[in-house]
Amino acid sequence: MVFEGDAIMSLKPSSFALTVGPLLFNWSADEFSDFYARIADEAPVDRVTIGEIVCSKRTPFYADRIPAAIERLQRGGKQVVLSSLAMVTLEREKRGARELFDQDLLEVEINDLTLMNWVKPEMAFSIGPLVNVYNEATLAYLARQGARRFCLPPELPFASVEVLAAAAAASGAEIELWAYGRIPLAISGRCTHARVHGLSKDSCQFVCAKDADGLAVRTLDGANFLAVNGVQTLSHISGALIGDLDRLARAGVTSLRLSPHTGDFIGVTRAFAEVASGALSAKEGLARLRQSAPEAAFSNGFLFGDCGAAALHER
Amino acid sequence: MSAPHKLELVCPAGTPAAFRAAIDAGAHAIYCGFNDETNARNFPGLNFSRAELAESIKYAHRRGAKVLIAINTFPRAGALTLWRNAVDDASRLGADAVILADIGLLDYASGAHPSLRLHLSVQAAAANADAIAFYARSFGVRRVVLPRVLTVQEIAAINRAIEVETEVFIFGGLCVMAEGRCSLSSYATGKSPNMNGACSPASHVEYREEGGELVSRLGGFAINSVGAGEAAPYPTLCKGCFEAGDYRGHVFEDPSSLDAASLIPQLAEAGVTALKIEGRQRSRAYTEAVVRSFRKALDAHAAGRPIPAGELRGLTEGQQTTSGAYRKTWR
After folding, report:
1. Which CATH architecture has domain B8-174+256-330?
2. CA nearest neighbour of A108 among A35, A1, A25, A22
3. pLDDT score for B314
4. What is the pLDDT confidence band of residue B3, given thresholds at 50, 70 and 90?
5. Where are the domains of chain B?
């Protein structure tokens, strides 16, 4: 939840809502339940986006765990947002996406513009990072249809974020940025995970479950490069804006998205909360991220560097 | 079965010379763009000035062909004027349609030019009937270029459920990722199809001899490696060789290109209105050969004759072709 006027009333250097993004990976039902229970009980976050975004074939394995997870998160004081699938093609995927609107209590995050065909002015919805909002005209159009919050495409440079945050403020909407975790770069009709195991999407044997943070893709000379997650391709690097909160706040960014990973993810949420509140310096925050995710390489290259992978070569 | 309906052949042109060649070879429609970042093939030396486009449109119209202007990148925040001017100029110059992807630009075009025909670019990745209905209802879009993630059966189902026309790719380069939803190039180079109209741009490509191999790099990342003396493929990111677990090779897609000529009857049956050839960056000679061959194929189909197969193999990347997502096994 974002409290209006917070930035003025508080002495904190910056004030952000923290959002846990939808789990991108194919974790087991028990891992799913445990993860959201811990988020509910321990993570200092305001909002949790929950639901399958990458591949509809995974949903049956944990769909019956979602209501309990939502209830627990709400008891833990978190706002719950339902995530839609990133690319809707099949009839059952369309039905599933449409059903997200059948409840009228929870906000829906739109990750495929298909869902725009069903929104009505009274519905609560936001726009996820996989929807192409590159400019103020698109943002204003979607805000007029009722979009409350925009998690912007991670490839945008900071100059665009500044313009979009001003446009969002004028529309009464909020701006969220991809602040932590491997960055979604592409989605395909084909399942790369199945392909590298000699399988196809229809006969995939759910091999994506073997890689809880994605399957590393290295160049032939051994450089870390990308990560495969079913039909999705992610960056090898983990986006990390923990050192940039002051300039993000000045630009008008109001919310930060932390994308779930293995390791000490609760520690990640705490590091962001403490840097945002001024309890930790940006440098200390980055050190804490390194402790929480020792395998990860961090970058803010899309926003502030020459390219998304900037700084990757340094490690 | 009723007589096969006539398919429209939509052909690429990167230069005025290729434009005229494509018309002369039998294109029903040409798609092309302005020489700036408003179109998704923003390469040096390619595309049209306003004056060139005015001349080209006259050339096409005199021969009964249509001209579709691609303004299909996503306008940069704070710089909408460049894209809006492109729409205004396309309308003023007499374009038969503009091909757009961005919601804000569609909203502008439908408001400022209510009589201008709007096509939805493949970059908008509208992959089902409801997404298409949203664009048709909100902006009056009349035709949708379908993303290359659908099977022929799925295309048929979409056409049964929508009231606007569809156009599909039939030949040329093949994106393995959903178009308009891919940031692989900007991850490695800072330049992306969505923002800059460029994928794996030549400005970030290097070829280097390394240990007896010729390595092609993009933004410093090794994308391909061949033995000395072999032809090094262009390092398009998603067509590269990588390691993933125990797999070593073309992780995302083989260096093949799309050739769905053999599926022309099925695509017609699926209710498709137009077939699109990719390749605005290609030479005039290539464009002419491909257009001529496909016009022949469409004429054969319209006359109920079999489609001549395989004659374009010499023109395709790496000599390998695929029918891509149109067949379910590709996935």
Report:
1. Alpha-Beta Barrel (3.20)
2. A22
3. 59
4. low
5. 8-174+256-330, 184-249
The domain locations on chain A are 12-182+237-293
Rounded average pLDDT over A139-145: 97
Q: Is the pLDDT of residue B275 over 90?
A: yes
Q: Which CATH class is domain A12-182+237-293?
A: alpha beta
Longest dimension (CA), chain B: 62
Q: Roughly how many angstroms between the first and final C-alpha of chain B, as a whole number?
A: 30
Tokens of A147: 């979009």
Q: Do B192 and A155 touch (CB under 8 A)?
A: yes
Are residues B206 and B183 in contact, defined by beta-carbon separation less than 8 angstroms?
Answer: no
Which of A87, A142, A144 is most worth mutating to test chain B (most B CB atoms within 10 A of its CB)? A87
Give the gap in angstroms from C-alpha B4 to the nearest C-alpha of chain A: 27
Q: What is the DSSP letter of B200?
A: S
- Chain A partners within 8 Å of B147 (Cβ): 189
Query: What's the pTM?
Result: 0.94
Q: pLDDT grade, residue B138 (50/70/90)?
A: very high
In the prediction, which pLDDT does A5 show? 38
Closest C-alpha among A61, A58, A100, A71 to residue A83:
A100
What is chain A's alpha carbon radius of gyration, rounded to the nearest angstrom?
A: 18
